[in-house]
Amino acid sequence: MAGFNKVVKSYQEAMAGLEDGMTVIAGGFGLCGIPEGLIAQIKRLQTTNLTFVSNNCGVDDFGLGILLKDKQIKKMISSYVGENAEFERQYLAGELEVELTPQGTLAEKMRAGGAGIPAFYTATGYGTPVAEGKEVKQFNGRQYILEESITGDFAIVRAWKADTMGNLIFRDTAMNFNPMAATAGKITVVEVEQILEPGELNPTEIHTPGIYVDRIIQASFEKRIERLTLAKQ
């Protein structure tokens, strides 16, 4: 990786610097648009006491779920956790900290963190356990709670296309949390399906500018379906 060329050749280089106790922000929604190769590298590194910020924690044998088996994750900040039996077991046993956050609030926490905004007010969660211990303020007759933004030591992201300078295009629903996550890491690592030369991406189609991206690696993806439903014949 030299100058404006942010492409790395190995997963070891992609995740260099990850240490025990760090916070990692991960893009994806369910199993859609997850940076599966980077997650696998974290498993190989065997880093522990990690805090992960992600919509969910994958399933038992795929996505972030594979990090639960060796108890690499200390805390999850998530919106949805219903597809992972080991996640449930660890939480009920007191082995895993969980901070449940409404989906839109979680996305805004990432976006605000990337924009340098320390906190914001939202009506979502007011009057529920989500609001416990948080400042409440009224605007135009409606109650809002103060939510702090989120940043991470690393952000791991999946994109469809990138150029070598780190400009990113996401594809369809695989966009999900990835653009917000990409802005919120001190080191943002992206694995992509296609890497192109500068100028080959249409500027009007770029979703995340390269200023947010530190490392890019090309990968192939399994593209697993989380729950397959077939129409009755």
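The record above closes out task 2.4. Task 2.5 opens with a second protein, given below.
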Amino acid sequence: MSAKEPIILLEKVSKRYGSSNSKSTTNVLTKVDLEVYEGESMAIIGPSGSGKSTLLNIMGALDTASDGSVCIAGRHLNEAGENELAEFRRRTVGFIFQAHHLLPQLSVMENVLVPLLAEPQPKGMLEAEERGRVLLKRVGLDHRLDHKPGQLSGGEKQRVAVVRALICKPRILLADEPTGALDRKSSENLAQLLMELNHEEGLTLMTVTHSMELARLTGTVLELEDGHLQTNRAS
């Protein structure tokens, strides 16, 4: 893919629930156009129910568009089969959610390596473990490798979730309310970490957030209202 081509390209993307012939049809997204270039950081804001998470999930192949074209990292997701979409989710995008979704019975390091276990034949586990150690040190958790999630604070759990999202070296990081369940200090620390990763690793960062503090740190703020998208470049 040319460096001048967007890594995320949405054209006339709409999303609705219910039959098109039904009176109960709900339009969530309406003809959304979006171009995102590699290494950019963007925040999606808007009222609850405005379609923010739906838009993020379509970018990450966790949901499908009802209409329009979705091209991510050169892949046309509208045309992809289930196996290709699964491979895309493993290799191209990393996900962070408001709930950390750590497995309580596993250690920090084991939780970080979980995405690799989805591979039919996991390869490079030793290399992945080393990357995990480096990243956990990067987020200040190198002393917690053998701890279980129940022994960690909320902020620490979310930092483990960030490392897990990065373990397969994704090009795009999708974060859905990553600071929503954290206290103010932990939220500030996580927001700063995400921006540092965006700059240092060249990750393309897309985050859904109600936090204007996090949104203002990004290069672009996208506002969704009633399914329509407006873009405001940060100064």
